[in-house]
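Subject: mismatched residue count in predicted assembly?

I count 533 residues in my input, but I want to confirm that the predicted structure covers every chain. Input:
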Amino acid sequence: MLIRIKKASDVSSSEITSKEAILNRRAFMTAAAAASGVALLPTFAGPAFAAARLENVKKTKWGEAEKPATLEGITSHNNFYEFGTGKSDPKRNAHTLKPKPWTVEIAGHAEKTGTFDLDDLIRPHQLEERIYRMRCVEAWSMVIPWVGIPLGDVLKRLGPTSKAKYVAFETLVDHEQMPAQRSPALPWPYLEGLRMDEAMHPLTLLAVGIHGEVMPNQNGAPIRLVVPWKYGFKGIKSIVKISFVEKQPPATWNIQAPREYGFYSNVNPERSHPRWSQSRERVITGEGGIKALFAPRAETKMFNGYAEEVASLYAGMDLFNNF
Amino acid sequence: MAAKLSQKTSRRIFKPLVFLIALLPLAWLGYALYSDTVLGTRLLTNDPVQKLDRELGDWALILIIITLAVRPARELLGMNEFIAYRRMIGLFAFFYVLLHLSSYTILNLQINLDEFLVDVAKRPFITIGVINFVGLAALAATSTRGMIRRLGGRNWRRLHMLIYGISVLGLIHFIMMIRADFSRPFIYGGCIVVLLGYRLWTGRRKRIPA
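Triage response: the counts match. Full output below for your records.
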């Protein structure tokens, strides 16, 4: 195995640090929390107000010209049915998620499989900021400055074999941490998948943060997928399992309504959703009220404007039937 | 005489009260928009176009269901007064449907006639919505005393039976729009089934010769 994950027999930090030091630290943290008026919260991830800055993030050329939505906007308008079906539900409910410690199981046709601590999976890579457009299948969009690492770099390290034709992803199932999973709004766990070449494409990102801060729970902490040329629901959140598979894996919305949501779900203004047109989008900036009510809609672009980078992946493919 | 007077008085008090209550949802939406704009809240979310659409449609359906409940309320609970407000509630239902259609065409489609026509032709839930709007407009237009007289009580009653069909279509329109979580249409559907069932049951009983 490439990365060592912590075993129960390992020395815990409390055995190294003296008890006195720990008590002092606790007293300090309690005092600090009381002073700042917030409850004591996990430091690695949590709701936006408790977020921590990510260090050593490399800026990239992606989306330099875009104007990102505010952190408040990005963290208060979410489709994350594990915390409720309303757009404001995840922000309200996602505090129950415990994104640290977090492990990801790697399975299937690869040289290195097993359960990895998330930190160990991410640490070998340089964090990058990429400002991407995110187009939701519901005809709204947002510009989001993600922090993450290219999925392909992680996958390469795991050594996929020639049998690995697709990559399958799975979200956590835990009724305590994700209370809305008690209702059958969707079949749990949430599943998604990519073709191998899509997964290896340099645009595809495993994101761990937004606006330079650790990924807020409601946006899919601690680690989520971002595929900017596909509809937003392909970007599976709170990933616990990544599998290298031979056949096209199941994807939740595709199972739920195969006529409406295809496996590929590439952004395509020409192919309308059976219930609404996909030719335009409401751009959500974080601004509310009158301004948002009368903001002009934007024209939706093929592959969400990333055609130059990704169109070749689908050369010769009928994108109407393979939607 | 005393009874008549008290009826008059109660109408004088309750009619404006029902009127104001029916305006509350709109007042709330207006306040929410003000608050989001001026006070920086997000009562209508970051996507107020969508939220406004949904809220107006919701209230239209709720008011339609309330008009269906007027008759059973009179017959079962002896609330004879209530019938006097049915027309007003029905007109408010039409008013909210009109606002719902306006928010969809003006705010969502931003007055794009081509897109609207494509939607009506290609998307069944929008076709149903437009049919319902036309139906409710017909009921609203024939709701005056003069129209009742002109149509004759029997024809008028027949025409206004349409409200039952409109309520069912409204529910279907709602269900077809949803991606997940059917709890609200389930509640509305339950109400409609009970009220429609009651109407069919009592209608049948009346036809049985005494």
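Chain B has a mean pLDDT of 91. Marking this ticket as 'not a bug'.
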